[in-house]
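quick one before i forget lol
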Amino acid sequence: MSWLQATLARRALQSCRSFTTSAPSRLAGSPNVVVTNLLTRRRTFATAALLWGSALAIAAGMTLSSTVHADAATPAPPVEEETRVDPATSIAFPTTLKIQSKTPLPAFTLMGVGARTVSFLGIKVYSVGFYADLSSPSLAMVPKDATPEEKIDYIVKNTACVLRIIPTRSTSYSHLRDGFMRAMQARQILCRQRGELSPDEELAIQSPLRQLKSMFPNTPLAKHSPLDILVTAPSNKSRTLVVRDLGSVQNDWLAREFVLAYFEGKGISPPLKESVVESTSVPSSSSSNARLQLAVPPRSQTYATHANVNPASSVGGSKPTAASLLSSALDQKQRAARREDSAGPFTLGIVPPRPDEVKPEKKWSELSVGGKVVRTTARTTNLVVILAGAGLTVVLVYALTSELFSRNSPTVLYSKSCELIKASPQVHQYMQGRLVFHNHPPTLSRPRHRNHYVNSQIFVDSAGREHMLLNFYVQGRPPGSASYTGEEEDGFFTRMSHKTQLAAVKLGEMSFEDIKEEATTRGIRLVELTKGMFRFLTGEEDARPAALPVPVPEKKVEETKGWMSSVTGMFSGIKGSTRSGSSSGEAYGGPAFTEGEVHADLVMNDQGYYQFRYLLIDMPNSNTRNPRRVFIQRADGVRETEPIIRWHR
């Protein structure tokens, strides 16, 4: 715009010069003409002067405005945040921490960083940074000859402090809570030993401790998510311990000792204490007005909500690192948005809502007709679900109780039958060793899947009485097998100890050749056992025949046969053949059995309980022609050849 201003000024000057040179010629006429010309020229000159004055004013204004614009200061470049990196975890902490709050808070200065490690392996749990308000006037009272530990104690007790905790790995709030509570219990014991905590004060801090414990939710805390714990400065009220986004506790002892726990002895984090001690040490060449070695960066704001203009950083400084950018982004995300508390469209409800997120529930009188219908439907649905769940629980408990503890349960009656068979001396005349019971025939050709339920059947006879039938199988040891007589009464370890002793005695009596032969025999037996197990698992039938009963030699008694025996022998074939099975009361001297099929018939009595009508065993099974039958329980009216009732399973 400078060429336009020069052109207008040049033309205005030329117009003034031409008007001055033409003035005598205009005054040379008659007086009347001169007067008329003067009046006309006067109006013309006034109009021209007005126009040219306006042009000059516009040009002067544009000239002045451009001059002011040229002299204005250039805007300052954006301020880059300075950070300090924890060397153990490579986590960056801002040197100046500004916490957003409804009440104005000062800017906190970083005094030290360190890592918290656990176990002898030195596993790093989190990095912690200690911040303090170094602009507080109370720091002017710090003694010059105070040790670094005394300075730290003075800072914690007289200024606002912040502990920023950043996990190095994904953890949970409950894990941090347990560590904090252990530290507080240790501080409580230490203060009691030093006489700094009276019984009344110890009783008064129990409620704040419980409040602090209940503040932490049972939710995960993501990796590199900062958790700020603020301790307010001393005032007329009690100091407050604030855990950001979780809550606060107001108690002087708890707020003070929570921070001092990190600096007692070696501290919760020894690197943090070393870093803070180094920052608070005073060099010998310091001036008289120096309080701390840590230099406070110049800033023009008093509170964290004001803009921070740092001239030194605007001129030059290091660029923000990736760790600092990540920390800032996580910090902003943590403040701006609430943690995830949903899985798809469903709300989990594990994170306590903020006060501004809780919508007050309307009273019943304030609801519209549609709102009343919706609330009634929702609560009715909840009630129906609760009642259905309670009913299902009652049904399951009743079913389990009736099956396991009822006297009429097939399982209970099966167990009672097994105990009666084990205790019967008549059974042991035919079967040796410990008896084992099965729901299938005890042979090597059993199906792959065994039944785990008792085979039972209930029916009503022609007289209206209710019967329960049980059918299962019993298996004994082969004849001649050695067994420990007290194995049923003794425990497992006693039986194993006895077997070990017998094996040791037998091994001591054997020669090298006998040991070699025994090892070969056991190896072959193990191979055969493995093959049989494989056939059993695959459902194949074993080709090995069942063990044959061992005949017991009978003693022949020679009698003197006369002529009457020869006569009676002629008519012996006329007598019909009878059932070979005999009553259980007869003495038995025949071969021993290893298998038996058990049948039980129980009748319900007048009291509503089942009682045995008969309990018998057919050896080796009921399908054999003329099996050996042994009665364990037998009611009146039951014949020796009582038919067995079967059913399809």
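fyi The first helix runs from residue 2 to 21.
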